[in-house]
Records
---
Amino acid sequence: MPDPGALSPPGPRLARLWRLGFGLLGLAALTLQFGLMLSNADGAPLSRSLINFFSYFTILTNLLVAFALLAPAIDARAVLGRWMAGEGVRAAVTMYAVVVGLTYHLLLARVWSPEGWWWLADTLLHTAMPLAMLVDWLLFTPKGRLRWFDAVKWLLFPAVFGAWTLAHGALSGWYPYWFIDVGELGLERAAINFAGLLAVFLVLGLAVVAIDRVIGRKRTPVSGSAA
């Protein structure tokens, strides 16, 4: 007999509608951002614009969010759908998305005041989509199976991003964010800033695992996929 005080997750239809709607919105926001970037490229080669576009952690994370939302909603039985529906994957993507939102509003918003279409793209990518992924994880993702070590494994993605940023920046002289700009700050200061960011990832990852465990103890077991 179910515990009357337990939490029951919302139904699969609502989850699917949520994921389809925000997944498509995320792709639209990425398309808008790329179009705006091209319009401001000042004749730079398309290849350079593409590389720089996909060198932003915000862009890569929003791509992950879009896939995490759309893949299970479109076909939960496909390989990509099953993988993206995994509790560990969804928790990691949620944590990355939260870092995107926090980093933008705490470190970047003060040096960037977009208007018009730029404001819309920034709001969607740095606020709306991180919140959509967070809500999806809280409401529609099964809980109670994460391990503390998962928070350490989730550091791989930002660590690889950091290595790419250093390598690309050394070759091009271009860095996506001021707080890891080796040209302006020097290697030591940029490395310290990035190490601090990795610490934030770890702390938030541990918080995600803790929340997962608390909610997992309160939710009633459900059968079938939430997608």
Note: The chain is about 70% helix and 0% strand.
---
Amino acid sequence: MNGDRRKVGDALDADGPGPSDSSTWSLFRDWCAATDQSALPADPCSLARFLDAHPAGASTQRRRIAVIDRVHRRGGLAEPGHTVTVRLALNDRRREKAASVRTAAAAIIEEVPVDGWPSGLFGRRDAMILTLLASGMTPTEITVLRRGDISVDSDDLVISGDHRIPGNLFGGRPAHRPVEIYRRWAEIQSTLDRAGSTRMVADTLDPNRAPAAKPCPPPKVVPAARASEPLLVRIDRWGHTPWAPDPLTRISASVLARAHLTRQPPTHRGHITEPGADRETGVLASVPDDVVLDKCYYAYGTAARRNAHERLSDMGERLEEVESRIDALLRQLDAIAGGERE
């Protein structure tokens, strides 16, 4: 405790605080001690409860958060005030907007498709967008989320370790609990991890698929190699996602959410068009009967393409280096030729 107090004193003295800053930290530390909470480091939920237990004007609350954040920053710790939980606790307008989105989304969430190609693909992603917005997050916050930022705790969805989305966000309907909405989208991402084929994703979304054909449920923990990939990705009109996943933009997330909330969701073509397919029917040329494909050929092919993508990612820089060396050699030849002429 004495070490913590010295660290706190150093943190406050470094910025030349007034008496009110010291009293703010003392008030927070005493409240944490009384409620058996950790003051350093402080949990964002604890900070939100502290603000709720000590009501004040917006400017006073912001100053309190700034003081507590500064103590953590000087101590090399994560700042609890820079979280969705605390921002919601502080901003009345933001809470009201989240409540409005939540009410509207609860009325239409059942209309967002979760099966069928390609409507189910877009629907599962868009349902995830609506869930995050209804929980109080902003389009900017949700579009920077990574797959590793999401975890499941019983019936609740936890974002970035501090923002908790309750299971009853949209009421008591099991199929539309945040955890189920997340798992449906995670199933798509898990399928894309194994093989980025629209055919396989379409099979996953087929509402008439036999029970034996259903894919295994997504893992509880996102693979470490995928944890840094964006949670929400761009999908083109044919249902393809980039090999190197591109995050959805803030504007796109806002437009999609508004379209659903105003009951004007975008429509998508209902068949797959791939290279070699008939443009009208989308049907691929049949495979000869004497060709037997390994059951893992999709995985092998996509792994090879992903490996090629990674190995050739710096090809542009390599070509520029070669061109620079060629230019240098040409200049040397010109200098030699010019010297000989003299």
Note: Residues 154 and 339 are 81 Å apart (CA to CA).
---
Amino acid sequence: MTIGLVGPAVSAVLGKPEGVEIPVAVALAESVANLPAGPGWWYEPKFDGLRLVMHRTQETVKCQAPSGRTITGAWVDLAVAGQAALRPGTVLDGEAVVWTDGRLDPSAAQVRGNSTPRRASALAAEYPAYYAVWDCLAVDGVDLRDRPYVERRAALLEVLADVPPPIQPVPATDDVDVALVWFEQLRRQGIGGVVAKRATSPYRPARVWQKVRHSVTMDAEVVGYVGPAVQPQRVAVRLPDGRSVLSQAVIAQVAAEMARHITESGPGRRARTDAGEAYTTTGQGLMVEVVAGTARHSTVAVICVR
């Protein structure tokens, strides 16, 4: 098992400073039934919260959602920690998570992520956040996305070597047996599964990783909604196979995120799913994670906004 520093030192990785354009187009993971095994695979526990890209500029810290939307106001405690501890020109990718009674609490993270600036401070005290970091996209303004995973991992551990919580790197191993132990034993702590990454893989805005979850899920694009725009009751999603279906009832935290997206995308038009159910269209760019086991039916269960 190898969890510590891997690959060459950061000084050997850095090249000509080119910067990372913000917002970052994020890398994604494909859901698979079984963990890949063999030489060249690395594994990380899957922390369930809200995806967050953190960019430490010369003056401040900016937090970005996968959609590109700025979400710094909802995660002020993490931004303050990043400004105090990170070097300017650092760009990190990871998950904003909340722990409740020793378990990851995705619902609390959704509440934090959907908070208004007015509520953000109070919620930060009630649900303090942690930043579980799994990738380093830039160091000192140098773009590392073309470098292999193991070199970016080395950069990540060096950058965070003296950084205290709430910002911490996720564990990683190249031992599939250790990853399987994580998959089974960390479930009670709310860890959602394991993510597998090729040692040689660069960081790309595509499905370059693989993930195994305790409940098999898939990513789907939101194409519309049912109910009022300010509080959608169900959402229409397009599944990877091209089918459009409606969700089950949308939980309040997801509905708040939908409402913001609908407001930003403007008025939609009437449309119907493949089963003939009516909905109002909305703009592109909003992804959700749905339970794959329900995909054979006319509705799906939305887990969270991605």
Note: Residues 217-305 form one domain.
---
Amino acid sequence: MTLRTPVQTRSKLPDVGTTIFTVIGELSARHNAINLSQGAPNFACDPGLVAGVTRAMAAGHNQYAPMTGLQALKTRIADKIATLYGTRYDADREVLVTASASEGLYAAISGLVHPGDEVIYFEPSFDSYAPVVRLQGAKPVAIKLNAPEFTVNWDEVRAAVNPRTRMIIINTPHNPSGQVLSAHDLAELAAITRQTDILILSDEVYEHVVFDGAAHHGMATHPQLAERSVIVSSFGKTYHVTGWRVGYCVAPAELMEEICKVHQFLMFSADTPMQYAFAEQMADPQSWLSLAAFYQRKRDLLQSLLVDSPFRLLPSAGSFFLLADYSDFSEESDSALVQRLIVEYGVATIPLSAFYTDGTDNKLIRLSFAKDEATLRAGAHALCQVKPR
């Protein structure tokens, strides 16, 4: 039986239900569908990483880590960022190890955004940004990227900025479009925020997954933006261990102080054994420098396998994702098509409309290539069989 409460509740997020990822996951499980939907690898991580966790556990590192993270790991993070992007963060005061990148995003928004503030973000977007802003009593302001290129219209951003604007949320490489910001984009963002109190929250969890020899134009590459930015990244995405739920963020000390005030009451500290293992793994720069080529091979394989499919693939400049346009062969909504793909063809994808608060339907679905070769081949084979409706 279902237990019922006599207590009257008032939801803070009355229009938020089960996420599309859960819905698609449940439908996929019922039909044993091939998983091209979830941005989580289905292949093993480096065995040395698992061994590192095991060693840490055996050595007794099973209690709370320091609140901001293990010093050795924070130092590795600071050194990596300085080497790659040219900005040096103080490992003691400006680096925070978080219990997932999602926790880092939440702590940053909660610590720095106040009731009545406005937060600009770009759609399609990762689904947590707007709800977390709303939980602070603030207003999320969505600006749509220009489809199908998914570029930023900076004139629209300028028009949206007002005295209540507290934060702009950036995501590069971008989930779900696979696009990346350019040096020109950073210059535009810097010009808009110059001589303001606007903060930047930059979701850079795919920072090491940028393709075709291009550079990652993150906030730490631009001194003016680094001064007002909180940058969030993910060990789970970098090391194929999304279930370990460890990430980090970096920010100027004054901003980090406020983020840590929230973090200490959310989690206090991230998982200790994993932090020891990540500190060991980061001793080898190839553990992240090799990632772009690794995922580019997967992108290229999936693209080649879908050449004869009815779908038209959009370019992917980074991340784990490709967008596929089906407007040439169907007028179905993207949600209807995704459900048909699961039920009739046994392959799971994600409708792009799920990444818009207003359900914008551009006749695009998202495919994840963060999968082993067998899964990519099987999923592509199924998609090549799709018939018009």
Note: The CA atoms of residues 111 and 258 lie 5 Å apart.
